């Protein structure tokens, strides 16, 4: 977990009294991150309140400053945590060990269902985009987290090219951005799209059609 940060609100004596045992510290930080994730996704960075985060976590507000330093630093920690979660889940797919065509199918399906099951991921990204990715630009971890995903997808594409299944020249980063965009845009704009086109785009049939459509689009692009 993160090392504690000095807070402008705490004196040296307060730091000594706040510092718990290592196991308790890990639990406290996880509780703060989970509470902050819920608060930031519900209210955005500007609307989120540290008092509410502390109350949700059942902890003293001073511990938030002790571990994370500031509201902006806590928001960055939450962003890093949610990105780490999806990257870890993607790695568990072991896409580089299965048939290349099936690997692409699974990546599209996984991304779609992950976004559906973790709506906070979309709302947190929306919030960060409103701030011009100012927090992620400060991250020392975010690019390192994404490297294994790019390598895994590049391996899948190379195996597909070698087996004469996929065409040459497919950039793994561009491909992933396209997959993420197809899923992200539909879900983040679902209410407005439903109103504009007069369809219930969250209906089960519409959702199944969307996944099939996205999969066909992506495979149509990569197949030889």
TrEMBL record:
Keyword Mitochondrion: no
The UniProt record lists the keyword Zinc: no
DNA-binding region positions on the chain: 49-68
Region feature (Disordered): 1-26
A single MF term (Gene Ontology): DNA binding
Region forming the signal peptide: none
Protein's name in the database: HTH-type transcriptional repressor NicS
Lineage summary: Bacteria, Pseudomonadati, Pseudomonadota, Betaproteobacteria, Burkholderiales
């Amino acid at each position: 977990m993160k090392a504690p940060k000095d807070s402008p609100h705490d004196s040296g004596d307060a730091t000594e009294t706040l510092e718990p045992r290592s196991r308790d510290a890990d639990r406290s930080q996880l509780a703060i991150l989970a509470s902050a994730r819920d608060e930031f996704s519900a209210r955005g960075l500007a609307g989120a309140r540290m008092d509410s985060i502390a109350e949700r976590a059942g902890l003293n507000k001073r511990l938030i400053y002790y571990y994370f330093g500031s509201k902006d630093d806590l928001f960055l920690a939450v962003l890093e945590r949610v990105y780490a979660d999806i990257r870890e889940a993607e790695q568990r797919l072991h896409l580089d060990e299965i048939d290349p065509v099936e690997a692409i199918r699974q990546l599209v399906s996984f991304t779609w269902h992950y976004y559906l099951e973790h709506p906070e991921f979309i709302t947190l990204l929306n919030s960060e985009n409103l701030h011009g990715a100012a927090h992620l630009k400060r991250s020392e971890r975010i690019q390192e987290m994404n490297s294994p995903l790019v390598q895994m997808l590049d391996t899948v594409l190379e195996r597909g090219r070698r087996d004469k299944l996929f065409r040459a020249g497919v950039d793994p980063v561009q491909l992933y951005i396209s997959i993420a965009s197809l899923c992200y845009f539909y879900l983040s704009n679902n209410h407005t799209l439903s109103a504009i086109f007069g369809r219930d785009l969250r209906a089960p049939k519409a959702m199944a059609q969307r996944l099939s459509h996205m999969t066909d689009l992506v495979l149509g692009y990569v197949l030889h």
